[in-house]
Specification:
About 20% of the residues lie in helices and about 25% in strands. It is α+β, with helices and mostly antiparallel strands. The strands form 5 sheets. Strands 1, 4, 5, 6, 11, 12, 13, 14, 15 and 16 form a 10-stranded antiparallel beta sheet that branches. An 8-stranded antiparallel beta barrel has the order 17-18-19-20-21-22-23-24. The chain starts with a strand and ends with a strand.
Length: about 475
């Protein structure tokens, strides 16, 4: 297993690393723990950063970023940050609050040049007076009332599920809406704002909200639970909720800036990490589940502005996780300036988080059940991969399915690629679709299957995506 160390004076100066419980851990034990957990949990690559006094004192990458080419993961390998992006975006928002560009409790619609529902993405909210209750604070502390994403809704429409500000329910939709507001107020796209006001000042030279050609030289590929490659995410549009491309070394710089703080006034940083809404939900996901618990009252689990917060026997903690197909990350910091950053390019990554948090950081108060960090030894056996029977179709048959398909406001393109089809989706690498019937296809990159719908005249009218539930994509002329 490859192991790459980041060379820096601060890192080399410490033979052991202080943990939050007052003990210390040797570097050799860190290496042994990570490598053992990776093997047992079947995790492709892991990046670890440990902090003391608000500075990274250990930054190291383990495993590989590309299994086919046997390329090692490095501290400078570009990875999709997933929802770690939300915390970086919250930092930008608080900088704008510092500058007087935004106010936390001012109604959002006062920042917009037209009513929210007149923006095409928010037409679903027309006539709902609750849009007037939305504020920057409500979107950052996840009390908007929206589902995590509208595509989880049966009708894929955006809607309020409760009164804004009344309860916690994690929502990427809320962050996406705040991105719109920020771009309207600042008259600039998010990628430029983040580059100028966050990444540049903090020295995050390998980080961007959109894919850069320079990332091709050292980037990680994400892998699913079975070790199948999912590829990098070459995002072309900035996405505050999950599209940031960054590295272990760069995100460690960002986490250090939050701890110290740097780039924010202390008042803005403290407001960002102050409990805004108590969390009583049994789990973070699914976000709108009704089950509640009092088990996290002992640690005062709550949400701040862009970060979760809780209290431990070792002081106050703030945290953020990242979860996307092929990417699992976790960041946590303490008032003492100690902390831990874990970044992985494997959907199995969360299975080793509890072991790493407890061993490397010495923290046993993490709300792992609420987070959904089930240890690998306690996870149920994986379902066997489906068996597909490949059918070769004539080019003329494949060409019948070529075209554009619409699912709400998203267009999916199907094209022929040799003896199979390819699915093109915005900001994602092409996905191969292989025939197993005259109208039935399976993906080589996931467990999804697809069926094309043909009318009585033999014309293709739609495509059904079987993704847990059936979603119909209407074919465009």
């Amino acid at each position: 297993m490859s192991l790459i160390a980041l060379s820096c004076g601060a890192c080399a100066a410490h033979s052991t690393i202080a943990r939050v419980d007052g003990t210390a851990i040797a570097r050799a034990e860190i290496d042994a723990t990570v490598e053992r957990a990776m093997r047992a949990g079947e995790v492709t690559g892991v990046g670890i950063a440990l902090f003391d006094r608000g500075e990274p004192v250990f930054v190291r990458a383990y495993g590989v970023r590309d299994t086919a080419r046997h390329l090692p993961l490095t501290p400078d390998s570009v990875m999709t940050a997933a929802s770690l992006s939300k915390a970086a975006f919250a930092y930008l928002v608080m900088k704008l609050v510092d500058l007087g560009k935004l106010e936390l409790d001012k109604p959002l619609e006062t920042y917009l040049r037209k009513p929210l529902s007149e923006f095409p993405r928010y037409a679903d909210l027309a006539g709902d007076a609750r849009t007037g209750k939305l504020t920057v604070r409500i979107l950052l502390d996840h009390t908007s009332g929206f589902a995590n994403w509208r595509w989880f809704e049966d009708d894929r429409r955006l809607a309020f599920h409760f009164e804004p500000g009344s309860r916690f329910a994690y929502s990427g939709e809320g962050i996406a809406l705040l991105q719109l507001v920020v771009e309207e107020v600042m008259h600039a796209p998010l990628d430029r704002l983040m580059a100028d006001r966050v990444f540049g000042p903090l020295g995050m030279t390998h980080t961007s909200m959109v894919w850069q050609e320079r990332f091709e030289a050292d980037h990680a590929i994400g892998y699913d639970e079975y070790g199948r490659p999912l590829g990098p995410q070459r995002r072309r549009q900035p996405d505050a909720a999950g599209g940031m491309q960054t590295t272990l070394a760069d995100y460690a710089r960002f986490l250090a800036a939050v701890m110290q703080p740097r780039g924010l006034t202390r008042a803005a940083r403290d407001e960002m990490l102050r409990p805004q809404i108590r969390i009583d939900s049994l789990h973070q996901f699914p976000t709108l589940a009704s089950e509640t618990t009092t088990s996290n009252r002992a640690i005062d689990l709550a949400y701040g502005l862009g970060w979760g917060v809780y209290h431990t026997a070792h002081g106050r903690a703030f945290f953020k996780e990242g979860h996307d197909d092929g990417w699992r990350h976790y960041a946590v910091g303490f008032d003492s300036g100690r902390g831990l950053l874990i970044m992985t390019n494997s959907s199995n990554g969360e299975g080793i988080f509890q072991e790493l948090i407890e061993t490397l950081l010495g923290n046993r108060d993490t709300p792992v059940e609420w987070e959904g960090f089930t240890p690998y030894a306690k996870q149920p056996p994986r379902k066997p991969l489906p068996i597909h029977h490949v059918l070769t179709l004539a080019p003329a048959v494949l060409d019948r399915y070529v075209g554009r398909y619409l699912l709400r406001d998203e267009i999916i393109t199907i094209r022929r690629s040799g003896d199979h089809l390819a699915l093109d989706e915005v900001d994602k690498d092409p996905e191969e679709l292989i025939a197993e019937g005259e109208r039935d296809f399976f993906s080589t990159a996931s467990d999804q299957t697809f069926t094309f719908v043909v009318d009585a005249d033999g014309s293709v009218t739609a495509m059904i995506a079987h993704v847990g539930k059936d979603l119909e994509l209407r074919r465009l002329p």
